[in-house]
Design a protein that fits this description.
- The protein is α/β, with parallel strands linked by helices.
- It is built from eleven helices and eight strands.
- Strands 1-2-3-4-5-6-7-8 form an eight-stranded parallel beta barrel, surrounded by five helices.
- Helix 10 links the parallel strand 7 and strand 8.
- Helix 1 (16-27) packs parallel to helix 2, helix 7 packs across helix 8 (177-194) and helix 10 (213-220) runs parallel beside helix 11 (237-246).
- It is globular and about 45 Å long.
- The structure holds phosphoenolpyruvate (PEP).
- Phosphoenolpyruvate binds next to strand 8.
Length: 248
């Protein structure tokens, strides 16, 4: 049985005060039988960590350096995240791939740095509108999954795949239940051939892209949709918690 995992990606939003308030409101309302996490901007992680201490809310990071530490001005390494109590970290978010032009090689390095440090890895994959329109969705997703090395990643409980069609992120236009299920099933099948079917059956596959309270029930009840990665709707406790409750 896969426990659903709902994660909020706050991106470059909020203030220290509003981060603390939001984290506190979420932490005190988490129902049973669902995992919930938030990924604040780096500079607010420590403040959020102190208000959620002792709660079930998992602390995450949106990005990390591929380097272990040292002379890399402006970067944050994975031991620093662990030091603050971070439990999961994203790799390959479409804003890193497409706006910051992170290469598949860099995304892959970050993914393995995150996993190897003992954190849960949320590896994001997804096609652009142009790729969908030219029937490339499954090829793109397969190639982004191939950034993961099965000889390094051995614990299915610490691997999460987020399927996030780029055309759905922050646009208000979500994948339909059927579109999401089709790609999620393909992801599980691909993980099965990269690792094995038992491993694949334990990996959580989140949907992300304009997930909101109105569409959460439909998407989250698809057989291969094991949670969500939420941007815009994670910035308000009411909307985020409505999605969390739709997952139970
Ligand atoms: C995201 O950026 O991961 C995301 C899913 O954003 P939104 O929910 O705003 O579409």
């Amino acid at each position: 049985m896969r426990i659903k995992f709902i994660a909020g990606n706050w991106k470059m939003n909020l203030t220290k005060t509003s981060s603390i308030e939001l984290a506190r409101a979420i932490a005190r309302a988490i129902p049973n039988n669902v995992e919930v996490g938030v990924a604040p901007p780096f500079v607010y992680i420590d403040a959020v960590a102190s208000v959620i201490a002792g709660s079930k809310l998992l602390l995450g990071a949106q990005d990390v350096s591929c380097e272990p530490g040292g002379a890399f001005t402006g970067e944050i390494c994975v031991p620093m995240l662990k030091d603050l109590g971070v439990r999961f970290c994203l790799s390959g978010h479409s804003e890193r791939r497409h706006i910051r032009h992170e290469s598949p090689d860099l995304v892959s390095k970050k993914a393995h740095v995150i996993y190897s440090a003992g954190l849960t890895l949320i590896h994001c994959v997804g096609e652009t509108l142009q790729e969908r329109d030219s029937n490339q969705t499954l090829n793109v997703v397969r190639s982004q999954l191939s950034e993961l090395n099965p000889t390094i990643i051995s614990d299915p409980n610490r691997l999460v795949i987020a399927y996030e069609p780029v055309w759905a992120i922050g646009t208000g236009r979500n994948a339909t239940d059927q579109q999401a299920q089709e790609v999620h099933a393909f992801i599980r099948q691909t993980l099965g051939s990269m690792w094995n079917p038992d491993f694949a059956s334990r990996v959580r596959i989140q949907y992300g892209g304009s997930l909101k309270p109105e569409n959460a029930k439909g998407l989250l009840s698809q057989p291969d949709v094991d949670g969500g990665l939420i941007g815009g709707a994670s910035l308000k406790a009411d909307s985020f918690l409505a999605i969390v409750n739709a997952a139970v």
